[in-house]
Design brief:
- With 89 residues, the protein is mainly alpha-helical.
- It has one helix spanning 3-34.
- It has 1 helix and no strands.
- It starts with a helix and ends in a 55-residue tail after the last helix.
Length: 89
């Protein structure tokens, strides 16, 4: 490899590192500016409306706070989509 090729790779690497450092610094500056306290006395431009529609009944195990296991999801997925051995298509 010639010296010119090495210098090209070195300059490209330095340019990439400089770009990443500038982007990181700019992102930190924007985040610091935007992360101030929210003002609730200012209108948000949205009118309050009804919340999201309630979903299906999560079942008796939903109160425990744990995620449901696949065998606890009754009626979801491909449950009951395959015909039995005696069913005709």
């Amino acid at each position: 490899m010639s010296n010119a090729t090495i210098w090209v790779f070195l300059l490209v690497g330095v340019a990439i590192v400089a770009f990443l450092l500038i982007a990181f610094a700019r992102g930190r500056r924007i985040q610091a500016r935007d992360s101030g306290p929210l003002h609730t006395d200012e209108p948000s431009g949205r009118e309050p409306g009804p919340g999201p529609a309630p979903g299906p009944d999560p079942g008796p195990d939903a109160d425990s706070g744990d995620r449901l296991k696949p065998h606890q999801l009754k009626g979801y997925g491909n449950f009951g989509t395959r015909p039995g051995p005696g069913d005709d298509r």
